[in-house]
## 1
Amino acid sequence: MKDKIIKKATDMFLKLGFKSVTMDDIACEMCISKKTIYKYFVNKEILIEEGTREVHKEIHDTINLIIAKKHNAITENFEIRKMFKEMFKSTDTSPAYQLKKHYPQIYESVLVREIDECKSVFKQNIEKGIAEGFYRESINVEAFVRFYYTLIFNINETIKSEKEAFELELFALEYHTRAIATTKGILELEKHLSQTNI
């Protein structure tokens, strides 16, 4: 039952907003008593924390599956972007924006988890792209990991609309890729941009 509550509550939080969904709403949606929810979660904040942990795990499990498919580095980034679009397609407000605004402590704990994993994914992608000849060998990998991470996280925590954030992320991906790409990489980027619907 605990897992079912986390799943349903997280779906509702992402779709309707962390702030607006109440414990009553979740109980009503699941046709259970509020008492049942409180048996597992002493308050809404604990439920949000559990939910964000599950979303974090799901995101990184899916990213690992994408990486395992051995796409080239540029294709990999577009596949990861596609995954985020699917995962948050019913979300109106950026989850990161909501968390930072309404539950800053939970947001900080999410950031602690995300920083290292995201930077690791970005670093692996850049190193892979260099090995494949899509990115320039001369770049400072650590610096570009930090640049891209800062861009992406700033978009997500400051832009309220998930749709607008997603559009800006495409521009950030293009900006990042053009900054580090070889001629071969630019051609690959242009191919993906021509096939991408914002």
Note: The radius of gyration is 19 Å.
## 2
Amino acid sequence: MKLDHIKTLEAFHEIIQLGSATAAARSLGLSQPAVSRLLAQFEAGLGFKLFHRSKGRLLPTSQALMLFEEVDLALQGIERVNVLARDLRQTNAGQLRVVAPPSFAEGPLVKLVASFLAEHPKIHINIDSRTRPTVMNLVATRTADCGFGKLPMDHPGIRLRPLVSSPTVCVLPPTHRLAKGRRPLGARDLAGEPLILVGHRGGDTRAQIAQAFQQAGVHPLVRLETRNVGAACALAAEGIGIAVVNELLSRHSLWTGVCIRPFEPAILQEYVFMSSANVRETPLTEAFYAHCRAQLAKPARAQARGRRAS
């Protein structure tokens, strides 16, 4: 609807409400002649009179009263559009489609989304959990607004932004002999211990873990392998073995009652935030990225303070 048409409807609405063009003009911040001109143009366009004059007041006709109900609804609709547009500019409303691998979607993403919704209660979020190649394709084709993944990855259709760097840790029952203390555990500490490893043997992290054991001259005793960090932590809690896993995912695992010790040498896993390389990110996607990066940095800062204090 054109701006002059909206002004015409507003002038008509205010005259009905207030009873005079002068009062309507004061309410709208216009001059009285301007309001009278808008009313005259409205009546000319409709082809019939909307008001009768009586002792300085404008009395609406029956047609005007019928028309008022529709005009009132129309102006309310315009106001809702304005409010929505303002909320979208301020990232207070809208829809966000997020995709991530199952381990991330069931782990860190839970608290990230919960805290973001607490700050933006009008946002609607759709979360999809897919394999790594599918995550990249969904983001590249804009089926999802954003996604999460772990380096290395290469796809011409996605934009990668740094998110968080996560070390590798050992997860073990609190009653285990290696659970005491805070120093990192190396391959020699784990010699003869049953291990639970995550991922496939040809993966980068598994290769780095194997290299650490080889350099220490220790043959790893792999008792169980899984693709799921949560399962690895749960099995460690049951005393099946020591899980050597990603610290970020173990931190957000639903399993409690375990001890987490750093693994040495440090094996870092770099997480990234993905969006389509073909379009500019929306303000809502930008806000979500900033929120996720800030939230994921908090535990790392707290842990660094704890290590310095010990």
Note: Residues 300-310 have pLDDT under 50 and may be disordered.
## 3
Amino acid sequence: MLKTTPLNAAHRAMHAKMVDFGGWDMPLHYGSQLDEHHSVRRDAGMFDVSHMLTVDLRGETVRQFLRGLVANNIDKLTLPGKALYTCMLNPDGGIIDDLIIYFLSESWFRLVVNAGTADKDIDWITLQSRQHVSDLTITPRRDLAMIAVQGPNARTKVWTVIPGSKAASEDLKPFQSVTFDNYFIARTGYTGEDGFEITLPVDEAEAFWHKLHVAGVAPAGLGARDTLRLEAGMNLYGHDMDETTSPLESGLTWTVDLKSERDFIGKQALLKQPVNQQLVGLVLLDKGILRNHQKIITQHEGATGEGEITSGGFSPTLNQSIALARIPVGIAAGEQVHVVVRDKQLAAKIVKYPFVRNGQALI
């Protein structure tokens, strides 16, 4: 039986097309994926992301524990409410999950982990805590729902729905958060647009969803979420990275701290491993659609190499096919490769991603 979020009935009342998404009954779209995509880029859209899991870690040694658990440096978090994007690695340097960590106090950090890896993440964190600390309390918060409101007008519309919240959240910078009444408001997102991700009690989620809709926020499903994040050049776990890939070969070097003396799980493996592949952006030059797992043929300095598309699709904003792909290192933006599509080799150009941010094409 599929798992459901607190907003399942609301999605069905809005005539959403529901699909099995990693064991969760989730909305793919509410009629037009294209319209939902454009609503987020041009105005405001909302996503049910309650399938993702909020995890509270409490204890006097929680900061020290996180120093060794994740690849990014938790000591960057000094201001309460500040957030950090990072990867949690296995000893071989493979990515167990990518997640956001919020610093709430020296004895309280909040993690938001992916739905598909949530159980694995909890098991891993629990195992590590038993080996390294004794006072850590790990609390999965299934009593909380999460709604992402994204787009150039997203914050303004949230302020109309949560009276008084403007004064509390107007000055938040990206990757900062604040608690206001029953709302945990974070200026984060997965679309390449401004907005908030709002965590609130499960029993208040449906009423809040409807208030946002009345305020003119368009409901958006998984389809638009995927095209938006692809345009924004944001990795998707299980596609652009997983336990078999290193963050250094997944475009996530900026999330890894190898310079400080701090040790963390997977660091020694990363220091020893050669980096032979890189994650790049592709724009299709010929007619067709780039899809996941299509083979790439490269030519560089007389040598032939191979790669693979990790995330591909049609960009509604650019009106052309784009992709993220893993190819051999040394091939730079501007060079051409060929993608094998139905036994034909189609030309594509390597570009620097993101492709689109804040409604603007960057390529």
Note: The two ends are 43 Å apart (CA to CA).
